[in-house]
Amino acid sequence: MNLLDVITGSNEPEKGAKTMESIEVELHLIDEDPLNPRKFLSDKDEDEMVESIKDRGILQAIVIIPHPDDATRYIVKDGNRRRRNALRAGLKTIPAVIKAEFSELDQLTANVMRKDMTIFDLSHSKIKDEEERVEVLNDLAELINDLKIIQKQYK
């Protein structure tokens, strides 16, 4: 699945894609990602998420990677808000999928799906790898073209 599939809602799995099982991980072992592109969060939305977690628990596992500097810890790559608000809700563990790696493109793609990811946040995400940057730009160009076609159909 590429960025365009995510934005347009295509949920067809890639050929050979595998689902990952989540496990319960103690929250105190998981650090927030300092490179998380999302910076602007509404207190109201955060409080609503805490209440939702208290009522229904965590409905979607977070994605974590091993901490590069401490083999006993992890870093969140997808789910910083869920992690932070699970702590605020008083949870001790959280469902998590542990991946060996999670690229900046993966993280940006995951965040584009979030309705409250601002243009500022997107523009400040740092995709250092040239191939990833080209892939994102190509996907965005495709999306813009598709949106122009759709717009013309409804004029």
TrEMBL record:
GO biological process: chromosome segregation
Cellular component aspect of the GO annotation: chromosome
Boundaries of every ParB-like N-terminal domain copy: 23-112
InterPro entries: Chromosome_partition/occlusion, ParB/RepB/Spo0J, ParB/Sulfiredoxin_sf, ParB_N
UniProt GO molecular function: DNA binding
Domain of life: Eukaryota
NCBIfam families, sorted: parB_part
Designated name of the protein: ParB-like N-terminal domain-containing protein
Organism field: Phaseolus coccineus (Scarlet runner bean)
